[in-house]
Amino acid sequence: MEHSKLPRVSLGMPVYNGENFVSEAIQSILEQDFIDFELVITDNASTDRTADICLEFARWDRRVRYVRNAHNLGAAANFNRAFELSSGEYFKWCAHDDVLGRDFLTDCVRALDDNARHVIAYPRLLGIDETGQLTSYVERVLPDMGGPSPASRFRLMVAAHGWDAAMFGLWRRDALAKTTLHEPYYGSDCALLAEMALLGTFVHAANAILFSRDHPTRSVRLPSSERLAWQNPDGSTANAFELSRRVKHLVAIAYRHRRTAPLGRTLFHLVAWVLDPLLIARFCLEVVGVVSPQLRIKLRGAGLGALKRIHAVSDRSPG
């Protein structure tokens, strides 16, 4: 029996209770002008109409595959499952609430095809609201990620604290397969991007557009307790230790790829980053949270308020 050829591109859409936006997200994928792809939807045991919506798409388009987890695995494991079930040469994670411009895949595939050193092709990222209307948000442009030094690229991505355009760009599968993938803490994607920077360069696909939707239930809008439940639905820990876990993850990444970038250089960049006063304050808050979670919340709120006042004063300053 002849086997059908593998798709060039796999798109993985992890979703949990996404009935409000998942239909529009899937539709934007199926309307791409690049058609050689598969869409793998991994449903984290949704309790709303997500399953019905996704199964309807799978019924009339064979490129769509719907997989429902028996129980909620947590966000990181569900993201990883979408990749593990895919087969394409290139891979992209798709948020269930985002929308792709029609030529997103064409432009990103071309960018990766043009240079084997590129491991991520990233788009322009524009904000949209709950109704799909453009907002004023345009994601910041980060420094050039095409440099020859893996340790320098690692330093830039560690300092960036994440980058949605790259996170939801198109990734070279064989490079991603060499990584630790997502770990079960909020902010793991920041470490994963830093790991990919060790493995190759990032390229801007200038004509590709990702419309990133902002809404009240988006993960970045959730309070820390709900973010913890998003990653750990079993409620196994009372303190997220998000920053501490990211540092531990980054150290493991530096050691894992010590033949690609000298361990001394990557660790030097990590230490320089950790010594930032704001990060030290965040570490202290995590320690305080062990003793008194309520005090941690109050101190964090006071700190955020002070930062807002500083920014407000700075904005009003002349010149």
UniProtKB/TrEMBL annotation:
Disulfide bond listed as a keyword: no
A GO MF term: hexosyltransferase activity
Keywords per UniProt: Transferase
InterPro entries: Glyco_trans_2-like (IPR001173), Nucleotide-diphossugar_trans (IPR029044)
Keyword Ribonucleoprotein: no
Signal peptide: none
Start and end residues of each Glycosyltransferase 2-like domain: 10-135
PANTHER family listed in its UniProt record: GLYCOSYL TRANSFERASE, GLYCOSYLTRANSFERASE
Protein name: Glycosyl transferase
